[in-house]
Specification:
Radius of gyration: 23 Å
Order of helices and strands: HHHHHHHHHHHHHHHH
Number of helices: 16
Strand content: under 5%
CATH class: Mainly Alpha
Number of domains: 1
Mean pLDDT: 84
Shape: globular
Helix content: over 70%
Distance between the termini: 29 Å
């Protein structure tokens, strides 16, 4: 077996995620109770999204789904003050683009810092770590906004994409993960086999760090999906993201609780889809880290 083939098979202990089922009955009961407590607010949000405003204000509140979901979603998309459909599409484009960029750049940088020896590497990594200690987004809003005005990007989604394409936390995370998940011997064996650096990255490193990439992808997607401050500053109301659209629902004609519940429920669905898509890798990565610890 070549080093490249070994790298493709070194995806961490696949059975590690199943070890949770070895826990005792009491542990399972506690976990089930915690799951119910965590899931109930989401369930209640979807229940309210299927009701009318009169039903939402009932005492006690309804706990079973109603039959108004389709009508509520239609009213949400037709709301002239929130531009919810545009905000939903913009958030999908922004979050997906930023997530792909952050994961790709962080994985490449993590491989370089963890396994490639070059002059000034530790200093450069230390500089990246320093950026994590400073709230750049809050402190840099004014110069960043001036930059977007100079570029003529105010009111356009590229103004929300560009500042987040690289993430210091992602680089640090993938550096640490790569240093633990990819043995130096495997890389040396691949070099003996004649593999180039990019071949090693694609055939050895990527399969080994896939769980870490999945965790980073989920965290990055959630962070950008929930971003509110910067989009509310640089975008206009006619071209919002989903979070600013929800805030505009609250300002239109007083408080329409059903619209707020419906907008929040619809905005949560992409996060659920992302978690389902990456869930197996995420759980495997977390369990692998627990086993190593």
């Amino acid at each position: 077996m070549t080093a490249i083939q070994a790298g493709r098979r070194s995806r961490g202990p696949a059975s590690a995620a199943n070890r949770i089922w070895d826990a005792g009955p009491l542990t399972k009961v506690v976990l089930a109770f915690a799951l119910v407590l965590s899931a109930f607010p989401i369930y209640y949000m979807f229940v309210m999204a299927t009701r009318t405003n009169d039903e939402v204000l009932e005492t006690p509140p309804p706990l079973l789904p109603g039959g108004n979901l389709g009508e509520n979603v239609q009213r949400l998309l037709e709301n002239e003050n929130a531009y919810f459909g545009t905000g939903l599409i913009n958030s999908i484009i922004i979050s997906t683009t930023v997530t792909v960029s952050v994961v790709l750049i962080s994985t490449l940088a993590g491989f370089a810092f963890a396994k490639l020896k070059f002059k000034g590497g530790k200093l450069l990594l230390g500089t990246i770590l320093l950026t994590m200690m400073v709230p750049l987004q809050q402190m840099g809003i004014v110069p960043l906004y001036e930059m977007m005005v100079t570029l003529g990007w105010t009111g356009q989604i590229q103004a929300v994409i560009l500042p987040f394409l690289v993430n210091g936390f992602g680089v640090f995370m993938m550096t640490q993960y790569t240093s633990q998940a990819v043995p130096d011997e495997l890389i040396e064996a691949a070099r003996v086999d004649g593999a180039s650096t990019m071949r090693i990255y694609a055939g050895v490193v990527l399969p080994a760090v896939r769980p870490g990439m999945a965790v980073l992808a989920l965290l990055t997607f959630m962070q950008n999906w929930n971003e509110f401050l910067w989009p509310s500053i640089v975008l206009n109301p006619e071209n919002p993201v989903v979070q600013t659209s929800i805030s505009m629902l609250n300002q239109a004609r007083g408080t329409d609780y059903v619209m707020l519940f419906t907008g929040t429920a619809v905005s949560v669905l992409p996060l659920v889809v992302v978690f389902i898509a990456f869930g197996r890798q995420i759980v495997g990565g977390l369990m692998e880290g627990a086993v190593k610890a």
